[in-house]
UniProtKB/TrEMBL annotation:
Annotated GO MF terms: arabinose-5-phosphate isomerase activity; carbohydrate derivative binding; metal ion binding
Family from the record: Belongs to the SIS family. GutQ/KpsF subfamily.
Record protein name field: KpsF/GutQ family sugar-phosphate isomerase
Domain SIS, chain residue ranges per copy: 40-183
Domain of life of the native organism: Bacteria
Keywords: CBS domain, Isomerase, Metal-binding, Repeat, Zinc
Domain CBS: 208-264, 270-321
Site (Catalytically relevant) residue list: 58, 110, 151, 192
CDD domains: CBS_pair_SIS_assoc (cd04604), SIS_Kpsf (cd05014)
Species per Swiss-Prot/TrEMBL record: Paracoccus hibiscisoli
Record-linked PANTHER family: ARABINOSE 5-PHOSPHATE ISOMERASE KDSD, PTHR42745
Chain residues that bind Zn(2+): 81
Length: 321
């Protein structure tokens, strides 16, 4: 028990009550989606410039996240603070843009100059608020009304359910836009080159080595052993007269042909038709192949020709695991 008489069970009960109230709000938001949401997506798709997201206080914090999600999923966006907009930042909002303005009450005074600016220059305005008759919603070209749902604090003064619903609505818009644009993981990586996410979306071609261990199919095994030793990958590829990859020699192949090894050539020892991967494939897919087959290397092949080699250690260094 704490000094105020609340125990661990009380904290957990509070947490579950808060989450339950917010879940109910999200369910109401989902059930209430209609033509206005589809129109909002179409309006944003038609924008030649950026989506300017704005909001004050907690709505502003949510707005920053929505703008960041838009920008990282193929919809150019920028957050503009409404107070800063009144002191010069309105110049960031052009006639090619669209304004997405967030305010639970729809009467936030700091939004007045931004709203007036959009009306003066015929900049499309989408309002998000819980009061359909508020100033913001009456001025907006399109109103996305949040459902009437209690805040999780119980007394209606702490933005909780309202901000959760606004955030979810922003995510829904971003993903609808992303799917319409057929935004792929490769596109996503362009905006997320760093960290774990960047590693997961790295391509084989980004990590592979091009100084390849290769020998001709009729090369003596003494030459193949020298290449394996010099290159340091523990394997060598075997190519035909045209340079196409036809096999691979691993330490397992060496053990299987230990007796009389130096009397053989590469084609007699190699494992034919080895597992390969395309340079444009995700490195994560290459790692999955190596782990599934319990191998340490994959040749990157394009049109039958070896273009690179990827070692499992390259994946580890890149942060794939």
């Amino acid at each position: 028990m704490t000094e105020k008489g609340l125990g661990v069970a009380d904290y957990i009960e509070t947490a579950r009550r808060v989450i339950g109230v917010e879940i109910a709000g999200l369910e109401a938001l989902s059930a209430g989606l209609g033509d206005e949401f589809s129109r909002a997506v179409e309006m944003i798709l038609a924008v030649r410039g950026r989506v300017i997201v704005s909001g004050m206080g907690k709505s502003g914090h949510v707005g920053r996240k929505i703008a960041a999600t838009f920008a990282s999923t193929g919809t150019p966006a920028q957050f503009v603070h409404p107070a800063e907009a009144s002191h010069g930042d309105l110049g960031m909002v052009t006639e090619a843009d669209l304004a997405l303005v967030l305010s639970n009450s729809g009467e936030t005074p700091e939004l007045a100059d931004l709203i007036a600016h959009t009306r003066r220059f015929s900049i499309p305005l989408i309002g998000v608020a819980a009061r359909p008759q508020s100033t913001l919603m009456r001025q907006a070209d399109l109103a996305l009304v949040l459902p009437a749902a209690p805040e999780a604090c119980g007394n209606g003064i702490v933005p909780t359910t309202s901000t959760t619903m606004t955030l979810a609505l922003g995510d829904a818009l971003a993903i609808a836009l992303m799917e319409h644009r057929q935004f792929t993981p490769e596109h996503f990586r362009t905006f997320h080159p760093g960290g774990k996410l960047g590693a997961l979306l790295a391509k084989v071609g980004d990590l592979m080595h091009t100084d390849l261990p290769l020998v001709a199919q009729d090369a003596p095994m003494s030459e193949a052993l020298l290449v394996i030793s010099q290159k340091g990958y523990g394997v060598t590829g075997v190519v035909d007269d045209a340079g196409a990859l036809i096999g691979i020699i691993t330490d397992g192949d060496l053990r299987r042909h230990m007796q009389g090894l130096l009397d053989l050539n590469a084609s007699a020892v190699m494992t034919p038709a080895p597992r390969t991967i395309a340079p444009g494939a995700l490195a994560e897919a290459a790692l999955a192949q190596m782990q599934d087959r319990k191998i340490t290397c994959l040749f990157a092949v394009e049109d039958g020709m070896p273009r690179g080699i990827l070692h499992i250690h390259d994946c580890l260094r890149a942060g794939l695991v």
